[in-house]
Amino acid sequence: MQRSDLPHFDALWDYSQPAKTEQTFRHVLQQTLQTAPAAYRAELWTQIARAQGLQRQFDAAHATLDQVERQLATACAADVPAGAEAAAAGHAADVVRADGGAADAVHARDFQVVRVRYLLERGRVFNSSRQPERARPLFLGAWELARRIGRDDYAVDAAHMLGIIEPPAEAQAWNERAYALAESSPQPGARRWRASLANNLGWACHARGEYGRALELFERALRLR
Hints:
Blueprint: H1 18-31, H2 38-54, H3 58-74, H4 82-86, H5 102-128, H6 132-149, H7 152-165, H8 168-184, H9 188-191, H10 194-207, H11 211-224
Helix pairs in contact: 1-2, 2-3, 2-5, 3-5, 5-6, 5-7, 6-7, 7-8, 8-10, 10-11
C-alpha cells in the first residue's frame, strides 16, 4: 500500500490529550498491521513514544524508542551523520546502506525520516525528564540529518528544541536559525513554525530590553497566525 493511502497520523495529534492520542495511534497500528510499510509503522511508534513522554511515562517512552532503534539497526538506509549521533550515549544505532533500485531508494529515505523522528523524540524524553545534556547530541543529530535529507520541518523542530535547552546566547542563535529556515523554506511543515518562533524571538528580545525589536517580532507573529 502507498503511503498516501494510509492514515496521516500526524493530523491525529491532540497535544492536550496525549493519552487519548496514544490510543488513537495504537488503533492506527492495528488497522495497518498487514498493509503499512515497516518505515511507516516505525515512524508511528516514535509518535507513540512522544505521547508517552507527554504523559511523563518516561520509562515506557524509552522502551518504545528502544523498539524503534532495533528496527533502525536492521533496516536499510542511506548514510547518516555519525558524529553527533555516536555521542548520544549509545542511543543512535548504525544503519546499513541500501543498494538497489528505486524501491530501495524510497525504503532508505523513509527510514532516514524515521531516524530523524527517533532522534527528536528520544531527545524530547531526555529533556522532559531533566536530562538536557543527553538530549543535546540527539537534537543536533536530528538537525544535521534533517538538513541533509531536505526535511526542513524536522530541522526547524530540532533547532527549536536546541533553542529550549541551550544557554541564552546559544539558544538565541538556534531560534534565529530555526526562524530563518522556516521563513525561507517552501515546505508548509516548516513554514507553520514561523508564528511561534517569531513570538519566542520577541520574548527573548524583550528580556534583553530590545523593546522595539520585540514589538516588531510580536506583530509579525500575529500576522502569521
